[in-house]
Amino acid sequence: METKIRPATPQDLNGILEIVNHNILHSTAVYDYDPKDQEFLQQWFDDKLSGNWPVVVADDNGIVVGYGSYGPFRFKQGYRFTIEHSVYAAPGHTGKGIGKLLLTELIRLAKESGYHCMIGGIDANNADSIAFHKKFGFVETGIIRESGYKFGKWLDLLFMQLLLE
Questions:
Q1: pTM of this structure
Q2: Please, are residues 75 and 6 in contact by the beta-carbon 8 Å criterion?
Q3: In this structure, what DSSP letter does residue 36 have?
Q4: pLDDT tens, 41-70?
């Protein structure tokens, strides 16, 4: 059976939580330090749903092997056509096309919803994520130097953007 991309349901939250916490503990893809709990993730999911923001999962035989979402880039009215996205594959599932499926779906949904610009905030040392985004046509737009701190070092945040029209 092949991996399907579909809207997330409450039953997917455990799988999403595992991916979130893995990235918090083992990567600079997320600049948080402490693992999240069920209550936090449920609130995040509820906020996404109430804001009409998509959360999609990569489902492989009922197992969540990736997820993606987008939401507001900033909360000023002038940014209402710009969104910021996140895409993550589960440990052991990176490099298998799951991110491609997820981001393709998020771009499709964003275009359907009339958004103009999609932003990605990426750790500037994450060459794989940068190359991944470039394959979709994202371009580097700027780096905020030493704006994050994790694992005992300063991190640079790279912004990339894709114009959706």
A1: 0.96
A2: no
A3: P
A4: 999 999 999 999 999 999 999 999 999 999
